[in-house]
Specification:
3 strands; 34% helix
């Protein structure tokens, strides 16, 4: 599975992600960040996606 698909899958399935429950087709990956196409404020960086849940809030 390509990196983009892996990152999107992680975010939409992670209850602590701002993208939790979003439709994967609505997510844009740009400049190291994943966000909703219609709401760029709702998203997170690749770095946040790869961190354990306990460390995400510190970013």
């Amino acid at each position: 599975m390509p990196l983009r698909e892996q990152a999107v899958k992680l975010t939409v399935e992670d209850e602590d992600s701002p993208l939790y429950g979003a439709d994967a087709d609505d997510i844009v990956v740009r400049a190291g960040r994943l966000h909703l196409e219609r709401n760029p404020a709702r998203g997170e960086s690749y770095r946040q996606t790869s961190l354990p849940r306990s460390r995400r809030r510190a970013c």
